[in-house]
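Recap for those who missed Tuesday's class. We walked through two folding examples back to back. For each one, the amino acid string is listed first and its predicted structure tokens come directly after. Nothing is annotated here on purpose, so try labeling regions yourself before you check the end of the notes.
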Amino acid sequence: MSSHETEYHSNDFDWEELRQRIENDPTLAYHFQPFTRHHHHSVTSSSLDSQSWNQFHSRHSTGKFFKERRYLFKEFPELASCEESSKLLEVGCGNGSTLLPILRCKENILVYACDCSTEALDRTTEVIYASNVVSPKSRFRPFCWDFSTSRPPTWFLCDSCYETLSQKPNILHSEHDNDERHFTDINSSKERECCIGGMDFVTLVFTLSAVPLDRMSTAVAECFSVLKPGGLLFFRDYGLYDMTMLRFEADQRVGFREYKRADGTRSYFFSLDSTRDLFLGAGFIQVELEYCCVKSVNRRKQKTMHRVWVHGKFQKPM
């Protein structure tokens, strides 16, 4: 692996050392104190979440707020080598910063994009149609879906396919061939009649952290349900002790490692354990899971920033 590639797996500093330094800083102690949920911090409804994100994307409509995620193919090389007509669902598409490099570099991939915010879907569509992507009309389909509160629309996954794909496999079951043939049927001949069928890939990039903690397991279970057996989920999100976590004030805490910004949008910071529990609890197999520790320097302010992200790759069992 070249030095250029290793920077994507980012070991600029040791996470354990960062943890000790932060936990020993008395000015940051409020982040680790037990949290008691008050009435006014009660969990937001799905419509409020959508409203907050609509306003957010409307404010940042120029798209300068997000940078195109060009690291995706280095972090998730399976995307670069995927088969023709592979199907991918981007969950929480934001303004298209994850989808654009995928559509641009892979002319044979079919991309579906969902978000709870209609404003985000409009932004993504604008960005993709304004770029040099080959035939976006036939390869890109955006739709509104809050994966933390409801199942996917039936045109995407019909009732019977949803029921079959949602089942966690019984590891003790030995008739794998029959199971596999049954799933193949769902994803080939039947998909044209009843629905799109299962996805080969799901990308969940800086999306899950915006979901209220008590809805996260539902959200991950829905990601499991839309994948074909053997399909992969690519995960990247805010890690524990990331610089942005430490910027939140004590009164912005709305739960354990969970914060709310002034605009109503949320942010949760994942540890490797909390990530593992969520995905394995939904039935996934862990393929990769690690902290990405990146040191970036703001030259204008002469300030070093310690960024922590969680990188994960999870597979739906065959």
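Example two. Treat it independently of the first, because the proteins are unrelated.
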Amino acid sequence: MPTPHIAAEQGDIAPAVLLPGDPRRAERIAAQLMPDARLVSEVRGNGVYTGEVDGRPLTVMASGMGMPSLGIYANELFSHYDVQRIVRVGTAGGLSPAVGVGDVVVALGAHTDSAMNERRIPGIRFSAVASYPLVAAAVAADGDAPGLHVAPVVSRDHFYGNPPEQIRALADYGTLAVEMEAAGLYAIAAEYGREALAVLTISDHLLDPSGDFSPEEREQNFQRSLRMGLAAAHA
């Protein structure tokens, strides 16, 4: 039966879900990958599209921005619709000299300043990590192309106000990018015993904003991470 935030019926949502942040991007991805996709829900203007890619079922929908929004959808997808894997395909900000605008980061793990994961296991600081089979599938789909990184990211509650000293410390510890959802997604997948991954295009850089993508460039340079995300979703 439908949930408070997804009006789809049982069977309307595929076992694999691609989850960008923006509802308009979700609509464009669905149209590109599945021209005959069905619109199975549009609660709060968030379209949910289900179809097939190369004969395999796929659902595309948006998470919204931040872990609270993503957490609502991920919980309902895993618990009510028996989704087996969710792949976030989105953008992130570079925070290390090791990564450049236009690069793709496969998020092996996700640090966070959010309290959302602290309460999961009393006395333990939960480590939010990706599902390795999805990591391997995403990387294999890209071959040996330059500009691909498999590394930790940081998921923050606040879009603005990244403390410079914190950014430097994270970069020193091998963290390459900042975004707002992966840590929540990985934790929820672990809670349900399911799989999750975030494949992120670096669209801007905290150390040098001169080369940041325009809105048009964000769309044009999104195809690489989409191809990798699709490979992970159907691994």
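Answers for example two:
The longest strand covers residues 195-205.
The chain has one domain: 16-233.
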